Amino acid sequence: MDLRVKIPESIVVHLGAPDDASAPNITVPFSYYIKNVASSEIYPTWPENAIRANILAQITFALNRVTTEFYRSQGYNFDITSLQEYDQAFTSGRDYFENIGRLVDELFNSYIVREGNFFPFFPRYCNGTTSVCPGGLSQWGTVELANQGLSPLEILRYYYGDDITLVENAPVAEVSETYPGTPLKVGDRGFEVKRMQIQLNRISKNYPAIPKIAYPDGFFDVITEDAVKAFQRIFNLEADGVIGNATWYQVNRIYNAVKRLAELDAEGLSVEDVNRQYSEMLQNGDQGPGVQLIQYFLRFISTFNDYIPSLMLDGIFGPATENSVRAFQAAYGVPETGTVNKATWDRMYSVYKSILDRLPDDYAGENVIPFQGTVLTRGSSEPAVRTLQTYLSRISDVYDEIPKTAITGYFGSDTEQAVVAYQNLFGLPPRGTVGPITWDSVTELYSDIVNGNQRSAGQYPGYVMTEEAE
C-alpha cells in the first residue's frame, strides 16, 4: 500500500477572509496554486536553493490544509483562503515567474514530513523582515543560508529541526472530502456509519450524556440515532439524529480533540497534578517545572485552537515554546512578547480553565502493554503472545476481516493468519510477525476500541515502513 499522502489535482481557494461570505471561491490546479503563491511571496532572483526550500514549505502548508480539511471541518466549502493573514498569498489571475514555474513543476508532488511520518506537518513561516515567527521559516533568511551553500533540505532542517525529511513523487489524484456526500440516518449501514458510531463512543467518555452504542457494527439503528441526537444537543446542532455535513465534521473535530487530550496523561502530568501558582517571569532559555507547566497549558489549549502550535512537555523553554507563547498571545489579546509574565500567565490559565470546565475531569485513556522487546513469530510462546491474542480477538469483534484466534499463549497458524489479516487491513507489511510497529498499531487500535474509538481502516498508522522494520 502506498502510504504517501495524495497530491490533489485541484484546490478550492476562497478569495477573502474565511467568514467573508461575499468573497468567491475558485478552483485551480494545485500546481498553478503553488506557482501563484510562490510568485506572490518570494523573488525569482533569489538563489535556487532558497526558492526550492520556500516552495516545499508552501506545498506542505497547502497540503496540510487540504488533508486535515482545516476549513471544511468548520463548515466552509473551500480548502484554503487567498490571504497571507490566514494562509498564503494568492492573487487570482496573476502570472507566475518562469523559473518558479519550472521548479514547481519539478517539486509539486514532494512535501515535508517529520521522520517516522508520511503526513505533511504544518510548516509555519514568515517573511523574516516585517514579520517574524520563532520556530518557523524566515523567507529572507533562506537567501542567506542558500548563499552559504546549504541545500534546500539543510535549509528546512535549519528552521524546522534535524528530523525533517522529504516525501517525493507522491501520487496525484483528486482528493475528495471524507464526508460521504449524503446524510447518514436510521436504516443506513456501512463503514461510514461504523466510523461515526465508534467515534461517538469515544467522545462519550468525555461527554457522558451521549449514550454508548453497544454494538458499533455499521448499522444505523435507533440507539445510534439517540447518540447522535445527544451529541447534536451538546454542540448546539439541530438535534434531528441525522449525520449531515455539519454533524459529520463536528464529530470528527471533537473526536480528534478528546483523543489528543488523552495523550496528555502519557506525558506524566494530569490536571489534578498541575500547580496553579505563578511567581516569576519565564522566557527563552529557562528550564524546569514552571516551563513544563506552561507547555502543558499551551498543549491543552492547542487542542481547541489550531492557531497555537502544540508542544512537547520537555521543560525546556526553547524556540518552539516561544513560538507557541507568541501564538497564544496573538490569539488572546496579550502583548506579543514571547515571554510569560503575570499577565500572560493569568490569561493562559483563564483560557485553560474555561475549556476544562466544559469537560469531565477524567479523560485518561486505558493503558496497554508496550512492546516487550522480542519480535513474536510462529512458534513463540510467552506472556506477550497471550496479550497479543487478547488484543486481536477484541479487534476482530469490530473488524470482520480479521479472523478470531484462541487465547492460548502459543503463536500458531491461526494467530499468524490473524496478524497477516491485520497487517493487510492497516497497511503494514504482511509478514505475519509482530515487532514494535505492528505491536504499537495493534495496541493503539485495541485501546481505541475498548474506549469506544476507532482508526479508519487503511489509515496510515504513523510509522515509516521499511523492510527491516520487523
Task: Produce the secondary structure layout.
Blueprint: E1 7-8, E2 10-14, E3 25-29, H1 30-41, H2 48-67, E4 80-81, H3 98-107, E5 111-114, E6 125-126, E7 137-138, H4 139-147, H5 152-160, E8 164-167, E9 172-173, H6 191-206, H7 222-234, H8 245-264, H9 289-302, H10 319-331, H11 342-356, H12 383-396, H13 413-425, H14 436-450
Helix pairs in contact: 1-2, 1-3, 2-3, 2-4, 2-5, 6-8, 9-11, 12-14
Mean pLDDT: 81
Q: Count all strands and give the number.
A: 9
Low-confidence stretches: 262-277, 360-367, 453-470
Question: What is the CA-based Rg, rounded?
Answer: 24 Å
| Count of discrete alpha- or pi-helical segments spanning 4 or more residues | 14
What share of residues are in beta strands? 5-15%
Largest sheet: 3 strands, mixed
Helices and strands, in N-to-C order? EEEHHEHEEEHHEEHHHHHHHHH
The total domain count is 4
Rounded to the nearest angstrom, the distance between the terminal CA atoms is 17 Å
Helix/strand class? mainly alpha
Strand order of the largest sheet: 3-2-4
Proportion in helices: 40-55%
Envelope shape: globular
